[in-house]
Amino acid sequence: MKGQNKLFIAIIIALILGVGIGGLVHVKYPESAEPFSKNIKLLGTVFIRLVQMIIAPLVFTTLVVGIAKMSDIKMIGRVGTKAMLWFISASLVSLFIGLILVNWLEPGHVTKLPVQDVASAEDLLKSSKSFSLEDFVKHMIPKSLFEAFATNEVLQIVVFAIMFGVALANLGEEYSKPVVKLFDIMAHGILKMVGYIMWFAPLGVLGAIAAVVATNGFEIFKVYAIYLRDFFFALGILWLVLLLVGYFILGNRLFDLLKRIKEPLLIAFSTTSSEAVFPKLVEELEKFGCNSRVVSFILPLGYSFNLDGSMMYMTFASIFIAQIYGVEMTIGQQITMLLVLMLTSKGIAGVPRASLVIIVATCSMFGIPPEGIALILPIDHFCDMGRSMTNVLGNTLATSAVSKWEGQLTEPLDKI
């Protein structure tokens, strides 16, 4: 059995064990649920931190090498333009799907949710008040590269790496070659570490799932069944659209691509972290045949600008809260909200629970009670599972599509 399949099976087993162990603790030892959750969650924390440890250096080295090797500034501009066109189109489609389906299904009109303690949303309410154009600029432009590395501000690292890569590309091969070679070796060394770190994934999955089920029990699946059902139905429609576009561009190779990213998708779903699979995605996309320069350029950008699952969730959750409180919104207001979400969502990449912060800010702007976010906080973990997995799919398809458009998609490396 291949190592990849072994890891996939190990993750599935860990997922089942996590639900079973968490359920057992919740039913048999409810008094121990909280300390148990706190301790077993450390397994997930270890895995996430191991991945976070290598994200900044990996993004920086691969992006600098990718741009410096392009050497042709026109090619950089062309690839960047194609990527941004994909990102904007995918974001608008995701937002519209969320808007259409939440109006059609009306989960807020048919669901009677228990009123949650508004105090649970206080942190998000405070975070949303600070959101502004100034906040956007601060999250995009680093005042120190070392601070950006220390805080894992991917967007800031991307900005510096693009400027540095362009500078190296224009410096001439005589000067740039040794630096590019050094970063190339570093990038390959970090990718080698990915293989080791991924074997911690089953433990991370087990810890994350067991903690949630032990604390909330199986009831959490029932209480919000309608909301989750409608949201995942909307996600399914978004997946169908993305896969149809992917098939139109990649043809039958789409199925090979999906087979290769099954582990990253499952890890993102289980740990609710799309960044946890970033290193593995880089590796798998290059094996799939995507040009390494295109991968190292587009994938980090995608993690900042192309979060399809999160985009769809924003319109879905915002209108859902409006429905719960009986706030009627005209089509014009909803489309205006969609455009606001389109712009503001690009401004806080790297912010924890960014989707919820943006929803709170948007609700305040349109007269929807922002404390309504407390209603969906208890099940946000499960929604985040679907969001994270969809974000991974969207960025995978974006990178593969641009590679194909550039004529840089070769045969899979492990089949040559």
TrEMBL record:
Q: Name one Pfam family in it.
A: SDF
Q: Name one GO cellular component term.
A: plasma membrane
InterPro entries assigned to the protein according to its UniProt record, in alphabetical order: Na-dicarboxylate_symporter (IPR001991), Na:dicarbo_symporter_sf (IPR036458)
Annotated GO biological process: dicarboxylic acid transport
State the PANTHER family in the record.
PROTON/GLUTAMATE-ASPARTATE SYMPORTER, PROTON_GLUTAMATE-ASPARTATE SYMPORTER
Which superkingdom, per the lineage? Answer: Bacteria
Task: Give the source species.
Answer: Chryseobacterium pennae
As for subcellular location, the record says:
Cell membrane
The protein's name is Dicarboxylate/amino acid:cation symporter
Q: Which Gene3D superfamilies match?
A: Sodium:dicarboxylate symporter (1.10.3860.10)
What keywords are assigned to this protein?
Answer: Cell membrane, Membrane, Symport, Transmembrane, Transmembrane helix, Transport
Top-level taxonomy: Bacteria, Pseudomonadati, Bacteroidota, Flavobacteriia, Flavobacteriales
In the bilayer, the protein is annotated as: Multi-pass membrane protein
> What is an example of a GO molecular function annotated in this UniProt entry?
symporter activity
Q: Which SUPFAM superfamilies match?
A: Proton glutamate symport protein
Transmembrane domains' residue ranges: 7-27, 47-71, 83-105, 154-172, 193-214, 226-250, 319-344, 356-379
